[in-house]
Amino acid sequence: MGNAHGHRKNRNNREHSGSYPTPVPPYYKYGPPPQPQVPSPTTQPQMALSLPYTNVDSSLRALAGQAEGFGRFAIGGLHGPLYHVTTLSDDGPGSLRDGCRRKEPLWIVFEVSGTIHLSSYLSVSSYKTIDGRGQRIKLTGKGLRLKECEHVIICNLEFEGGRGPDVDGIQIKPNSKHIWIDRCSLRDYDDGLIDITRESTDITVSRCHFSQHDKTILIGADPSHVGDRCIRVTIHHCFFDGTRQRHPRVRFGKVHLYNNYTRHWGIYAVCASVESQIYSQCNIYEAGQKKVAFKYLTEKATDKEEACSGCIRSEGDLFTAGTQAGLLTENARSNLFHPSEYYPTWTVEAPTDTLKHVIQHCTGWQCVPRPTEAA
């Protein structure tokens, strides 16, 4: 299919060395035409998909600057040396915490596999890549805190069993930006799995698997936080696997959702609250007992006189298993951003059974080797 806007050079035509099937020339691939023609979800299900990130495992630092969406500028520790995690200890020489607290850029890799029990939040400073490829690392007890930092990439980790009030798997606040969370598995925390609040922005969450949890992703924490109007987040190719709610829940921010698979939620799939703008594109929503996918909550920003909810635009989404969209027609298109106003290209497919299969099996932590450094 033609693409008037074009993809970033070679985005979908590189030799693949990651965990997705090798792509072939796609039957549905485009940048952001104003009214794209979406194929029927039942057409050509046997064909391979055009998928993002086919080259990021070709060399160790090929991840840097390759995120799609709002987090596309995140370079992590691209310009720093390797830091080798050699112990599963919570702190001390060779620990993850010791690497993350250092102020210089670092590309952090692991020489061990296993569980790191965090006794307190692990703070990540700017210009860090935490690269779990080649090992299997699980963080438990507490989570990662990205506070007033920029250019952080978190890749191929597991998060499970965070305990305590306000304990999130990944907490991004305040004033953090240029963040990419890719190919992580997150489950069973006492609060959220990912929280993005307090004017943190330009963030992409991709290829993650969320399960066994209630409040999954929160974007914007309170209607009094009017500075959160700056928040911009892209969530794509993620699997929300029976998680109860917040896929995501949004206040104020602009959020682009595409090619995610959300199934068997307990309350709702996606929630738009005060002034939020959600562009839902070619996602798969598969209901369990609760049938309505989209929810609106009315709240009053502290600098406004009247309360309002947010806006959701659904384009090319598949609602299956009796799912009811629940869209409010009067605000579906009013005052809603289009992703092409902010980035020129992204990789999106029609919501087919083939896409669903890939999302089920190729999200979250993957057993992939750690790539070598480029020559």
Question: Would you mind describing this structure in some detail?
Answer:
This is Pectate lyase. By secondary structure, this protein is mostly beta strands. It has helices spanning 96-101, 353-362; strands spanning 82-85, 106-110, 114-117, 122-123, 128-131, 137-141, 144-146, 150-155, 158-162, 170-172, 177-182, 185-189, 192-196, 201-206, 209-211, 215-219, 232-236, 239-241, 249-250, 254-258, 261-263, 270-272, 277-281, 284-286, 294-296, 311-315, 318-320. It has two helices and 27 strands. The strands form three sheets. It has a ten-stranded parallel β-sheet with strand order 1-2-5-8-11-14-17-20-23-26.
Q: How would you describe this structure in keywords?
A:
single chain; 375 residues; mainly beta; ten-stranded parallel β-sheet; nine-stranded parallel β-sheet; 2 helices; 27 strands; globular; disordered N terminus
